[in-house]
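Q: Sequence in, structure out?
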Amino acid sequence: MPFTPIPTLTVYHCTAIVYYSYMDFSFQIKAKDKKTQARLGVIKTPHGEIETPAYTPVATTATVKALDTKDIIECKSQVVLANTYHLLLRPGLEVLEQFGGFAPFMKWEGPTITDSGGYQVSFMRSDPPSPDGFGGVTTNVVKITDEGATFRSYVDGSKQLITPERSMEIQSVLNADIIMAFDQPLGKDYTEEKIKEAFKRTLLWEERSFHAWQDIQSKRKRQSKSYQALYGIVQGGTNKDLRRQSLEFILKTGFPGVAIGGETIGADPKITAESLDTIADLWPQDKPVHALGLGGGPEGIFEALSRGVDTFDNTSVTRIARSGLLYIYPEDGGTKENKFRLDVSKSKFKSKKESWSQTCRCYTCQNYSAAYLHHLLVARELSGFRLASIHNVHFMNELMIRIRTAIKNGDFEAMRREWAGAF
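A: Exactly. Output:
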């Protein structure tokens, strides 16, 4: 049964005054694929340019797990994404403000993105408190209202409240070039009533985020601080009407960029494709589009990029590396069936003297054998986590370079078919 459209909120259109008075953020499409919506572009930020399509390593707590900043750079990364919720709790805003944001804190000089904390506060456990009413530092009690989300810190148990306005304030301190509106993603098990409630709340929160962001950018300009571009987040689950209403609201409001959120952009490439197809005809040509938590490996990436996504982040790239799953190129035997990855911890790699990939030019593959990687990961040695993560991050960035070249040369469709097969 179709949903009744959510009434559009009142929006005050003063975006152009803020957006166009800053010339250190822009998006330009350089080339388009003729058969798909894949596009080659450049996002200009105060801390450098991002050539798109681009992969964004996730530096959750101002670190990409197992890697230092030099590793991230040498893996050809252009931009990193940090987590607002986690950085608020540790090391905290007082520390990060002293450094001028999370990027100087981790010695990263390139472009940066932060999420809003909406996903984390929406899907934390809602455990009952212990008899003393505290619940322990690992218990996160969540109460979500139109005002915002209340929870307890997993660090010290303190009570915290994040509102749209507070999220914008936090992200201003984190000082990323690109920031996200505060939203309430839809859960897989939500009832129809709860879906409507969360969706309406997301529109309310995003509108409040937008107005708070405008006020903060005016203050930042007076203080000679760099501009932050705010992305509105498309929600709506698998419901076409809700997703279209969400994107239309974002475009009408005037956000400088668009992000695609929700579980539908997760691990299943087919669902990702179906979800993006619901809004493909509304895609903005003058705004960059970011896919939050894009899953599905290379197959999912091709589904998203062929539908106009410009940038994306994915925590699984390094997470699976630490478990032994390493990416391989088609030249090394990578296929859609093996998801372009193999498990180096398997015994068949115990004595392999050759590097993991004969194609890859990363530090790991240029210096170590597959057997050594196998040994380190089976023994759970920390250096194994680093070397495996270096390979996977480098692989993703190299894949993006290949894709950008293919779009430029008009070969994207052929490359997509080689990697992901037919639509």
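The chain has two domains: 25-314, 321-420.
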